Amino acid sequence: MQLRSPFMQQLQQNMRMRGYSLRTEKTYLYWIRDYIRFHNRQHPMNLTSDHVVQFLSYLSNSRDVAINTQKTALNALAFLYNQFLNQPLGDIGFNYAKRQRKIPIVISQQEVQTILKQLSQRDRIIFSLLYGSGLRITECLRLRIKDLAFDHSSIIVHDGKGGKDRKTILSPLLYSSLKELIQDATKLQALDNKRGIGPSLPHMLGKKYPNAYRQPAWMFIFPSTTICQHPITGKVCRHHLHDSVPRKALKKAVAEAGLNTKKINYKLRPVIYPTGQPSVVQIISRIICVILFVTVLQPSYYARAVIYVQYKSC
């Protein structure tokens, strides 16, 4: 992201020094820029917590944004004042609007099976990994060939939420499909290598190992169909598939399944609430989990135990 303002450039450099993800960096810069423009481009150092409350109230009353959007904007401004400017906001006395309870809309198991049949093989594998292995959408799409351990039936997730690594399960019934995707990915990598490009590499690995982009281990399992420019290094490379692709595929599958009259509002990974009434996200996630594990994945006893422990408190 090219920034003209020296202040915004310093802010961007500070976030990268602290190890913030590119998505967080982009979101924070957006809300901080919007905050400055709202107050007629005044410098944030000349503004107080009252100005922050005015901006949040404007978002709630004039722009009618969701509660989570207000929280994201507040987090961005809290970073600006608490971390970057060293001017803690303290207790600003701002209260979020209460979220109203809504009656959940639940789809049946037959409808979920119909949706899964409409998906292509690649998208079906993505959703199988999301629910069978408990991956987030970005964690799934960022998987590289080296992250799969077929001998141990496991997947190693690098740099997950909070910058943490973890190991999760991999269903043996996905082996053949994943190996086909790996073959296609390595062929694509070989074609890219002839042009002097390859997969995008994390951090400064490409500088430390200049030929790492030629190694199949670093190739994405779900590569993008186009090449792009790396947002940090500016080097031409091939990134992984964008997270909007499976979302659009799911939307299309729902329409082709004849369920376009129903509002299916659910995320690509199960959301677990320890207490309270199950949400529509939770209910639909349960149904898809059961169908995938019983009819598609057929997991081992260990996999069933993991799912049972995950959902028994819901």
The helix/strand class is: mainly alpha
The helix/strand series, from N terminus to C terminus, equals HHHHHHHEEEHHEEHHH
Number of helices: 12
Mean pLDDT: 81
Strand composition percent: under 5%
Oligomer: single chain
What would CATH call the class of the largest domain? Mainly Alpha
**Which spans have pLDDT < 50 for at least 5 consecutive residues?**
265-283, 301-314
Task: Give the neighbour order of strands across the main sheet.
Answer: 1-2-3
Distance between the termini: 41 Å
Described by strand count, sense and barrel closure, the largest sheet is:
3 strands, antiparallel
Rg on CA atoms, Å: 22 Å
What characteristic shape results from the CA principal axes?
A: globular
Number of domain modules: 2
Percentage of residues assigned to helices: 40-55%
- Structure summary, number of beta strands: 5
Written description of the protein model:
The structure is a single chain. This protein has twelve helices and five strands. Helix content is 49%, strand content 4%. The chain has helices at 6-17, 22-38, 49-61, 67-84, 109-118, 121-132, 137-141, 175-194, 205-208, 244-256, 280-297, 301-311, and strands at residues 148-149, 154-157, 166-169, 228-229, 236-237. It folds into two domains: 6-84, Orthogonal Bundle (DNA polymerase, domain 1); 101-314, hpI Integrase, Chain A. It has 314 residues and is mainly α. The two termini are 41 Å apart. The longest helix has 20 residues, at 175-194.
